[in-house]
Amino acid sequence: MLRKLLIGTALASGVAFAAHAEDVKEVQMLHWWTSGGEAAALNVLKQDLAKEGFAWKDVPVAGGGGDAAMTALKAMVAAGNYPTASQMLGYTVLDYAAAGVMGDLTETAIKEGWDKSVPAALQKFSVYDGKWVAAPVNVHSVNWLWINKAVMDKIGGTEPKTFDDFIALLDKAKAAGVIPLALGGQNWQEATMFDSVVLSTGGPEFYKKAFNDLDEESLKSDTMKKSFDNLAKLVTYVDPNFSGRDWNLATAMVIKGDALVQVMGDWAKGEFNAAKKVPGTDFLCYRFPGTDGSVVYNSDMFGMFNVPEDRKAAQIALATATLSKSFQSAFNVVKGSVPARTDVPDTDFDACGKKGMADLKAANEGGTLFGSLAQGYGAPPAVANAYKDVVSKFVHGQIKTSDEAVTQLVSAIEDAK
Amino acid sequence: MSAVATPARQSTGGISARTVNRIVIYGLLALFALFYLMPLFVMLVTSFKTMDEIQNGNMLALPQEPTFAPWIRAWSEVCSGLTCVGMKGYFWNSIKMVVPAVIISTLLGALNGYVLTKWRFRGATLVFGLMLFACFIPFQSVLLPMATILGSLGRFGVKLQNATGLTFGFGNPTVNLVFVHVVYGIGFTTLFFRNYYEAFPNELVKAAQIDGASFFQIFRRIMLPNSLPIIVVTVIYQFTNIWNDFLFASAYAGSGDVMPMTVALNNVVNTSTGVVEYNVNMAAAMIAALPTLLVYVLAGRYFVRGLMAGAVKG
Amino acid sequence: MSTVAETSITLTPEHDARPGATVRSRLQDALPKLVLAPSFAATIVFVYGFILWTIYLSFTNSKTFPSYAITGPRAYQRLWRWTFESDPPSSWYTSITNMGIFGFLYISICLALGLFLAILLDQKIRGEGVLRPIYLYPMALSFIVTGVAWKWFLDPGLGLEQTLHQWGWTSFHFDWIKNKDFVIYTVVIAGVWQASGFIMAMFLAGLRGIDGEILKAAQIDGATTFQLYRRIVIPLLRPIFLSALIVLAHLAIKSYDLVVALTSGGPGGSAWLPSNFMYEYTFKRNEMAVGSASAVIMLMTITAIIVPYLYSELREKPR
After folding, report:
1. Rounded to 5 degrees, what are φ and ψ at A40?
2. pTM greater than the 0.90 cutoff
3. Residues of chain B neighbouring A62 (CB-CB closer than 8 A)
4. Contact at CB, C257 and B246, closer than 8 angstroms
């Protein structure tokens, strides 16, 4: 692709282009981080590479949380024009690796000690068939509550430790006349919340069996049924206009104090930061009640493609810079997530970030770090989306009972496997 | 030369009925204008508001403290990915793709329509039917096979480059997009012209032919000058569709230096995880639509009547 | 002058019998076909070739990438099951029923409104130059942003309902966009808003292409305005109806971004159209075989609906 582009540009500008055998000092990067904060975070990497003399060719394609970019990537690969690297999620990396279009960074990985510092759960996606094919950039975790502190003080609430506590807290908010739960009624948001509900209802073992191993017994168990009942309970606390709302508008409701709490991944913190809110004084971050000690994660990765030899040096530089401690810290402070390696100092992070890093480390060591099914780290996209369908249809009433929901979940997942 | 105007000699009531008639017509036109303008109103007022006002006020309210900052940001500062040059940087990329694609597809459509109506041959209807049905192919299902073909053309371009020093456009993303839009546009342009020429008097063509005019002479001297309204429609349709295409543009020309306007706009507007600046988005969307709007206004002037009558006399 | 509708006089070059100019005249004969050939060839390869490719893929086990081993009609079996064993409604079932509702309302309202506005605008209106772009401009704006404006406007907590409540009409209730049974109608409203202006332009072009002499003659014969339109003008616009219908049908089946920008798929996916289904399964869910099969079924449905119409419109009329 790049060669093509270069030729095209050279032709267009009337400059003769001659192929050289020397290294091309340029990385071509497909990604969907196009908004202010995210782009600023990625810019750090661009500058790090510039210091080493590598140019950055940006291929940003936003839309649908990466859907548009993945469509573009598929077209690029079909045309035989691989980018140096592409932002990718979970199973997509493995799909492309299985198709044989990914590069091999194992040498660099060993030299830089990635296998020791990157959590094993993440390596499941960045290593294929014994080869490092992707560089993880960050770890997001989804089992968070984001609470407006002023509202919390007004209703005299305290940190909920169990699901029942949480319901009691929501009741208090309701009695005080604020919207208890801010939810965006789009399928991925509903399913992201349900990830936490299942972890809280069934515990870590159950979550893993149901949502990572897709064990049928667990999927159709009473615990799953109870999880759906709990979800139904939570949905009674949302305002009537929640359907179709964007996640950031739900966050805005909490920021403004119209709503007490939102269940959302740690990217929500970016919204609080942008509104100049401080953790601890303006807003509170708690783990979803009953999930303390476990982390349901998703992670952004830079998939590294099998580029021509003269581009490998640039690719290695990109991967090395991505997993450098300084970049991991600088990037994740801005992005709201936590570093993808557990040996990065937490000095620059805020209170929520520090807690996130500590939790990640503990979960990694304790074996309670689980891929989020809603975010595509629990199972391949076909299954994950079938799951989102069922949860969303349950929330919006196309599926009426938890019995039916469990039956549908089992058959939808079976169908999509 | 006459429009299908309400006949002046309407029997009942004379002038007053005619006046009532006019009032009703203007009233209806104005009412519909309001319906069409309403979202534009929302976008315009939003683009002049501060983010605080957007988050706390009514969306239909006028801005309390109007600000041009969102427009300035959208024009010259806003970021598409890591490149923060505003929307103004992407006009040229789009224009150099849209203009050739519109001209080529419109011209081909006019020629095809001319052949299909005035030079019929056995099977012409089937050919037209097949081209017409082609309008319905879902672009999602051509994306990958087309990419494969464009990819091999690109490699062919590299070979040409090595052999002759020139690529002849093979593998150039802008050329690729022009090609794709022409291929998937000719169905529509042919349809428009064919159906317009269908109502075009054959006598004119026949007379010219007897006078010894050639195929292309008839096309240039008789058909084209009488096609202004349909050229306007075709150009509007093609320009809009190609300008606003996102799927092909993002898949075949996503890189910053060739990226068309729509991809840039999409990058500005779509945030996966980040703060949404609605005021800037609205301003950016209107900036991105300016060339299309300009085409509507300028081309609209050629929505004229009565050329055909003139041609008969001349 | 005779009526314009009488069009099927086929022209054949008459100088081909002359000896001596055979090569030239043969070239002259072939010229029209040569002019048409590149377009036709491109259509055959890049449309029908790709349709065959899609049909082929629908019988494979293609997932993230195309795979070329035929594995049978499993994709069709799944679609079949999703169509007929659909309680609660499957996404596919929702998509095709929505297509029926959306397609019918969208096409008929756009046609009616477009024709109506074109006729009004054709009444020697002062300010036509201002009104025309006003009706047309929605086409120019990318729906990823106008979708937001519409979404706000239709949102009961932000838009029309709230504004009217503030103005004192508190019993007003309009929450279709939040309602799984009505959300598809909001897609119709926004879709009509976007496309009807262009249909108006097509009809206007058609009206302007009609020979004024015929109308004058009819008026002199004492036809009323209504009769004039019903008996003469609208029949003359038949080819334009065909163009407008094709454009609308094409827009209707490709209304992907409309649904996404306006409703994000609707409550529980209740606003999906087949194009959303196709895109989701082909690119997002990595079930390319199912995506291809749905594309094939869409094309077959369109064939079943549009081909008879095309046949009746296009067959050589004996005159």
Report:
1. -60, -40
2. no
3. 266-267, 269-272
4. yes
> For residue range A326-379, what is the model confidence (pLDDT) as tens digits?
999 999 988 889 999 999 999 999 999 999 999 999 999 999 999 999 999 999
Domain span holding position B143: 73-313
B105 with B24, same domain: the answer is no
Cα C119 to its chain centre, rounded Å, is: 21
Mutation pick from B85, B245, B255 vs chain A, by most beta carbons of A within 10 Å, is B255
Please answer yes or no on whether C269 and A389 come within 8 Å at the CB atom: yes
Nearest CB to A34 within list B79, B157, B165: B79
Same domain as B151, residue B210: yes
Name the CATH code of domain A2-140+298-356 (choices 1.10.10.10, 3.30.1700.10, 3.40.50.740, 3.40.190.10).
3.40.190.10
Domain boundary among B49, B67, B85: B67
**Does one domain contain both B252 and B107?**
yes
Same-domain status, B221 and B275: yes
User: Would you list the domain boundaries of chain A?
Assistant: 2-140+298-356, 141-296+370-416
pLDDT (average), residues A254-266: 94
**Percentage of chain A surpassing pLDDT 70?**
94
Which of chain C's residues have a Cβ under 8 Å away from the Cβ of B213?
A: none
Phi/psi of residue B183, each to 5°?
-60, -45
C68: distance to nearest CA of chain B, Å? 13
The domain that contains B220 carries what CATH number? Answer: 1.10.3720.10
Does this chain's domain A2-140+298-356 share its CATH topology with A141-296+370-416?
A: yes
**Contact between A5 and B258 using a beta-carbon 8 Å cutoff:** yes
Residues B77 and B95 in one domain: yes
Per CATH, domain A141-296+370-416 is 3.40.190.10: yes
Of C43, C242, C247, the CB nearest to B131: C43
Q: Are residues B132 and B23 part of one domain?
A: no
Size of the A and B interface in Cβ pairs below 8 Å = 170
Residues of B in contact with C156 (CB under 8 A): none
Per-residue pLDDT reduced to its tens digit, A3-46: 444 444 444 433 333 444 578 899 999 999 876 667 878 888 99
Percent helix, strand, coil in chain C, to 5, is 70, 0, 30
Helix (H) or strand (E) holding B208: helix B202-210
Q: Report the CATH architecture of C89-286.
A: Orthogonal Bundle (1.10)
* Chain C residue at shortest CA distance from A415: C78
Q: How far is C82 from chain B (nearest CA, A)?
A: 21
Do residue A5 and residue B148 have CB atoms under 8 angstroms apart? no
C263–A244 CB contact, under 8 Å: yes
CA distance C273 to C279: 10
**Contact status, residue A373 vs residue A152, Cβ threshold 8 Å:** no
Count of CB atoms within 10 A of residue A273's CB?
18
CB contact under 8 A, A12 and B83: no
Tens of each residue's pLDDT in chain B, 314 residues: 334 444 444 444 456 888 888 899 999 999 999 999 998 998 899 999 988 888 777 778 888 889 999 999 889 888 888 888 888 889 889 999 999 999 999 999 999 999 999 998 888 889 999 998 888 888 888 999 999 999 999 888 888 888 887 777 788 899 999 999 999 999 999 999 998 888 788 888 899 989 988 899 999 988 998 888 899 989 999 999 999 988 899 999 878 788 899 888 888 887 655 567 888 888 998 999 889 988 888 888 887 664 444 444 33
What is the DSSP secondary-structure string of A287-349?
EPTT-TT-EEEE-EEEEEB---GGGHHHHHHHHHHHT-HHHHHHHHHHHSSEESSTTS--TTS
Distance from C11 to chain A by nearest Cα, in Å? 45
Neighbours of C, requiring at least 3 CB pairs below 8 Å, are: A, B
Q: Are A379 and A211 in contact (CB under 8 A)?
A: yes
Residue B128's closest CA among B138, B120, B137? B120
ipTM for the assembly:
0.86
Minimum-distance CB partner of C286 among A241, A382, A395: A382
- A189 touches C: beta carbon within 8 Å: no
Total domains, chain B: 2
State the count of interchain CB pairs (< 8 A) between B and C.
318
Q: Two tokens at A360?
A: 């990640």
Q: Is the peptide bond before B145 cis (omega within 30 degrees of 0)?
A: no
Does C137 contact B59 at a Cβ distance shorter than 8 Å? no
